[in-house]
Design goal:
With about 180 residues, this protein is of the alpha+beta class. It has 3 domains: about 1-65; about 70-110; about 125-180, no CATH class. It has helices at about 1-5, 15-25, 30-45, 70-80, 90-100, 105, 125-140, and strands at about 50-55, 60-65, 145, 150, 155-160, 165-170, 175, 180. The longest helix has 14 residues, at about 125-140. The two termini are about 40 Å apart.
Length: about 180
């Protein structure tokens, strides 16, 4: 966690600072053991990351090959911003969670100012869970039952077709113009 959140190429961390951060987390460590641990992490055969030493003034250690590249996180953040079916509140929460996959310094770069022309965000939180239910049904090959609804002027859901229940066998979801159809 320390390497992911506290380091990047521009912000290496010194071993004494690492010892301090470990102590704040209730872990007692000595400098020598930290050096040994870094070497052990780098020698592990299936480690998805590498810890690099930056020598010289202001040097220290930082992690490369983080779970996501910054450009990938920015792309995901932009997709969340642009999505009509994700509420503004849920968008904020998701973007904060995505920010945990990079250093706290780079996380600031994820605060994107994306304006999607003509895009209205959903006001309904439950839509994410409905989408998840549909994905589960598709994966399991199950049918789903639902009522078609529209929003009225008071922002209340009103069933179409006198509340008729529909049963379908979903096999794919289509995302078109920021909306799942």
């Amino acid at each position: 966690e320390i390497f992911v959140r506290e380091t990047d190429e521009k912000h290496p961390i010194s071993v004494p600072r690492m010892v301090e951060l470990l102590k704040e987390r209730g872990i007692v460590a000595e400098r020598k053991s930290v050096y040994d641990d870094i070497q052990t992490l780098n020698e592990m055969p299936d480690t998805p990351f590498e810890i690099v030493q930056q020598r010289g003034r202001g040097g220290g250690y930082y992690m490369v090959d983080t779970p996501f590249e910054l450009a990938e996180l920015k792309l995901l953040v932009d997709a969340v911003y642009a999505s009509k079916f994700i509420t503004a509140r849920k968008s904020k929460v998701l973007i904060e969670k995505l920010g945990r996959f990079t250093s706290r310094y780079r996380q600031e770069e994820l605060d994107r100012k994306v304006l999607v022309s003509g895009r209205v965000k959903s006001q309904e939180e439950k839509i994410l869970y409905s989408v998840d239910t549909l994905h589960s049904a598709i994966t399991a090959g199950n049918q789903v039952r639902f009522k078609y609804c529209d929003w009225d002027l008071q922002k209340q859901m009103v069933p179409r077709h006198e509340g008729q229940l529909y049963t379908v066998s979903p096999w794919v979801m289509v995302w078109e113009n920021g909306t799942i159809i």
